[in-house]
Amino acid sequence: MNPWGSRKTAPDAPPPGASPPSRTSSGTSELDSGLQPVYHGEGSASETVDFVAVHGLNGHREKTWTTKSGVNWLRDLLPVDFPNSRILSYGYNSRTHGSDQLIENSLYEHAISFLTELCNYRRNTKTERRPIILLAHSLGGIVVKAALIHSNLCKADRKLEANIKLSTHAVVFFGTPHSGSHAAAVGTHVLTLGSIFVRTNTRIIRQLRENSDFLGVQRDQWKAISSNFEITEFYETYRTIVLFGRGLMVVPSQSATQAGSSTGQPLHRCHRELVRFESRLDPDYITISSQLKDLVSRSHDTIAANWDISEGANTSPGFASSSRVSSFASTVDPATSPTTPTARMSTTLRFSLPVEQNPGFVGRAGHLKELHKYLWTVNESGFGVGERSRIVVLHGLGGAGKTQLSIAYAQHHKKDFSAVFWIDASTERNTLLSYRIIAQRLLETTTGHPGHEDDARKSLLSRLPIGEYVSSSGQLSPDDKALPKIAKAAVDFLQSENESFSWLMIMDNLDSLDDYPLSTYLPQNSKRGKVIITTRLRAAAQLKNMHHIETDQIEEADGVQILLNAAPLRIKSETDDQDAKAIANALGLLPLALELAGAYINKAQMQLSRYLELFERHRNQLGRFGDQAAVFATWEVSFQRLAEDSDAAELLTLLAFLHNSTFWEGLLLIPFDDDDAVATESSALGSAWLRELSADELRLMNALIKIFSISLAKRNSDGTVYLHPLVHYFGRERLSGDKRREKLIQAVIVVGKALQQAYTRPMTKEVRKFISRIVPHADHCIFLVNQEGAKDIFATMLTDKAAAKALFYLGVLFQNLSRLKEAETIFAAIATTTHPDSCCTPHMGANSERRLAQVMILFSRYQEAEVLLLNAIPILTGLVGKRHDDAIAAQLALGMVYHRRHQYSDAERLLREAISNGTDESPNRRPVMGRLAREAASVLGLVYRDQGRLQEALDILSEALKQASEMEEEEDEDDAAHLPTVRYRHAIILQDLGHWITAMHTYAEIWGQLKVILGPGNPLTLRTANALGRMYCFLGRYREARDMLDIAWRGQEALGFSRDQETAQLRTLFNIGVLNMEEGLYSEAVECLSRVQRAYTKLYDSDAMLTHTAFLELGIVHSRRGKPAEAVTLLERLLESQLAHHPDSRMELCQTRIALAEALTQVPGSVEQAKMVLTPALEFARSSLEPDNPVRLKVELAHANRVLACGPQQQDEPLVLDDLRDVVARLERIFGLRHQTTVRGKVLLAMAYEHVAGEEVAKAREMMQEAAETLKASLGPGHPLSKEIAKMARSREKAAATECDVDDDAVKGGNGKTTPAKFDVRVSVRQLGEAMQELRFGS
């Protein structure tokens, strides 16, 4: 489902001087070819960029870009994101088949025609210097490239054509066959068959074949100029269905991503659908629009510089003639002397790698020579320096020394590079973190120049756009949403033109090509960049445009040297040379295996021949490991050696179940609780050893020393312990199933004990840092638990007291990290265990029920949560007392359940109990609420609010907020989210009371705080984003509303929220529906709101308050769509249900009465009924709401609309102009001049002038025209409301021009005399009222 819909924007008229479309003699409409304006910005003066679209093979300048439902994204979507742009679409006859006349033009001829027409268009509109961004689909990309090549060749006598290249900032290719398309060859055969019935143009097809001469020549010409443009390339990922249902990849990624200066990006579409998008919420459209925003933001400076250079203007030092920054050390300010060192960034970064070179590294001269030769030498095909990054893939078995080989090369040639970068490619997240480090290093080059740091940083950030992610201390954000953007900025930076900045990148340990987007993170289009990739994947040998070196084996002499260097204490014999060669060959000449074997021999001080005997014995037992059996046999020998020391052997095995590179001794040196220590003595999990080791630091250190001595682990530079990934893997896989599960549970106990210690202390910064160090180990444990079978592992853990407690705290961690599904699984296992040997205490079980219920509340599973809490509360109260935080938290949770289920009396009772239990009522001081009590008070405020008791809600929330603010500095950092949460609920009440601007600013501030405190994906953070989006919608800031609701929608889906069950997701969908309605997307609004209504009816019933809100908005949509009868029927039923089930919800009743009255106003003969409906709402608003309250202002407007709808002769009560003027003034102050509600007030005031003060019709006409212009500016000329009000304004202008000539159009006044016809020649009052109804501001 698409919850957003698409915005329709009518095409604008042709440019000045253009003639209307006509038919050619052949019957072909000129609409099918040539340059067509699709959209003009809001006045030519505000237009900032030209988007020019060129279609592909057999395409059409409109149909190519249009979906089956009629959405043309150039016309309907792009103008919303780029309102100040001009959008043009070029059409040409590229048909390769058909029965109509075909034009036998070549691609080059089409390009010349396109260039000429674009030149003339821009000259006629005097916009030659406006930046151009070209959008090319398929064949259109070949046409565009040919046009730019021709533009580049144009001399001074053809300046107009040359100016196109000068003004082109970027080219966006969609599935363009840069190297030809295999589909073209297939197409030739198909067309040959088709030519029996229709004429065929195969001239173009021949030019598109793979490796065609035309494309080859163009590719060479394009290389010479492509660096002058920013290039983005998108390619298809789905096959296109052709004859007989066969699927064909028309332009594969390798053909679509060889334009020379960009990395291709996938779109999840087939070739035909590559440039068709239904809505702005389409993920592929979001990707494209984001790219275009980046391009537009840089276009003006670039093109201005191009023109300055072209005209001989003086330019700033450090800029090349192409206007792109040419150097990593470019001057940042023309006023700064180019000799001032502080104005430049350092061109060399300090050499630093996270992995140290092995001091025992020897040999590999052949590999090093081959590596250097390829990285620096032009190969036979001419593919060399200055075209693309040179990339070498080192692939081979684990332990083959790939990483050490790349480090050795970097060490030896570090002076040849400005910087050496390291990427951990083992996972996508590690890659993102590596790019963050790279960007941070680049930032640090701008420091150390007092007085010039700001200039240097500004210069860097102009090319590395990461400024929004840099903290005040200069550190880049580690936020999950920021990391991909930082990585992209770094990749783009490395691919930019930096003639004096050369770099080497090592992408280490590429483990997967299936789920790792290598093309995204590989900077492969740099003139001075070199990349070394290390991988165990043999499939990497198939990667194109890369040189491949297999590193499985080294020279025998090198292998012998590694072995002997590692074993200086061996018992020597006469057969050493022979034995060393035998061992080296038996180990497959793998450096890591040789080093480990040497370390073992050295430690045991044995003869080489003895080791050879041991090795052969164990290798026979490890045949299941295939190619890795040799190296695993080496480790098995070492493991068996450790078996002599049980501590070392057990510890090494335990480390295999924790994270392989972040372990530190402190994680183990956390003592067991006394009762856990007793329980472990008889534990079947072998945790007695673990308890003993945790209490003896010396014993732990001795075990680690023995592990280090045989090189199975080593220290990192930060003091943590590192296990090679293969050792890490082998340490688990060598165990039997039972032993593996036992060690896994011990690892969970280690993690759980550390978490217990953290969560039972005040949550300081140090404790938070401690928890962050535990998270990688928790992640690894839960991953392995799921591999082994979580259900069985959990059941076993719950029979051990220490393991059960560890499991509980693991659940707490995941709950706090918003990993709700994992938390639910853990707490459900504890809460529902029925094992007779379960070691879960009643307290742990009840607390697990409480926490499980809290998770279910977030998923809107209120009935399940209620059952759990009703069971947990009496247990917790009996065990720890009613004033304990666990008991209060359970009461609070149940109160929230009752609130969400609209059981207000039960909710109020529970929440008051929680407040009382959590409040310190010591004598001689005012009561002080604890954190949970304040939380309960804030929820109670929402209960009051839902019952229309707004003042009580405001009072209790204000007190909770006051106390939370006072206690903020005194309480733990664990409460950091508490104050924003209370403020959020307080803002809801302010919103209801009409303080919308204050509420909006509060929501925005809270959202920013929660992103930092809880993370952007936390449910509370997303809830605030949703509320902020709703408030933006209230205030008419629709683009901002759309952005915020998109954030909430996507974030909630990522959490696993169900669109039809979770109220959080339904609230977002509801708000999207309202936003669609406000933007005139009525069909989409009905779809969203109907889904919400059905879901609420299923979750609750048709008479629930939430269901009523959906019915209300559906009624308003029907009214706006011109279906007032349907709206009246629905809204009358709604009002009847509200009066029967929620008579005290006065605000909701008021909203419904407003909507119903305005719908009745549109129905002939129903104005009196509208008065009866509206009168109670008017009385309530005037007696209970402040004059500035938006609901009261809406009631006043509805009242004025109803009175005016009666007509000047039948008005049942006078309309006081001063009152209406006061309402309009308040609307201007609260909403601003451009808001729909303000415009509506002005239109009604204009009507009042016409009907009550006939002498002020000129002023009324002026106000109507102002309203039309305002709506055109705020909603766009294509919005139905803009069109309607513009029509009304034109009718008044026309009436004013013809008023003196109209004698026949007169009406009888109330006194029987003839009245001038000036009111009737305009639109009737009822018609105006109907039009005004469309301007109603949604509740």
- Sheet with the most strands: spatial strand order: 1-3-2-4-5-6-9
The value of Rg in angstroms is: 37 Å
Percent helix among the residues? 55-70%
Task: Please report the distance between the alpha carbons of the first and last residues.
Answer: 24 Å
Count the helices. How many?
Answer: 53
Low confidence ranges: 4-31, 96-105, 180-203, 206-213, 313-346, 379-385, 1300-1339
Instruction: Label the overall shape.
Output: flat
Q: Biggest sheet, open or closed, and with what strands and sense?
A: 7 strands, mixed
Which strand-content bin applies to the residues?
5-15%
Mean pLDDT: 76
Task: Quickly give the structural class.
Answer: alpha/beta
Report the count of strand segments. 20
Biased composition (Low complexity): 20-29
Keywords: Endoplasmic reticulum, Membrane, Mitochondrion, TPR repeat
InterPro entries: AB_hydrolase_fold, NB-ARC, P-loop_NTPase, SERAC1, TPR-like_helical_dom_sf, TPR_rpt
GO molecular function: ADP binding; identical protein binding
